[in-house]
Amino acid sequence: MPTCAGAARVSTEVPGSVSAPVFDHTGRLAGVLGLGFPTQRVTPADAPRLGPIVARAAAAASSALAHQDANA
Fold first, then answer.
1. Cα dist. 62→26, 33, 37, 54, 68 in Å?
2. Can you give the pLDDT at residue 3?
3. Do 19 and 55 form a contact (C-beta atoms < 8 A)?
4. Is the peptide bond before 48 cis (omega within 30 degrees of 0)?
5. Residue 59 has what pLDDT?
6. How many Cα neighbours within 13 Å face the side chain of 70?
């Protein structure tokens, strides 16, 4: 399963998916934000566009849980 920019993961299996982790205020995994889709509509070529979008949304969810990104 290839990795996209922003720590999102992409699966090109049927159905495909893009997902990224959400962390809580302690830095522990709180959940995962993801999209699932039929690979007939979304192809691996879409991953460079979708991966960062999902990663940003997961980062925003982490921020809402008071997570402090060590890389920021």
1. 11, 10, 24, 12, 8
2. 41
3. no
4. no
5. 94
6. 5
Q: Which amino acid is at 37?
A: F
pLDDT computed for residue 43 by the predictor? 79
Half-sphere exposure of 66 (CA within 13 A, CB side): 2
Residues in the chain with pLDDT < 70? 1-15, 71-72
Q: What is the DSSP string of 31-43?
A: EEEEEEE-TTTS-
Cβ-based neighbour number of residue 14 at 10 Å? 9
Residue ranges covered by each domain of the chain? 5-64
pLDDT recorded at residue 60: 94
CA distances from 12 to 4, 16, 29 (A): 12, 5, 24
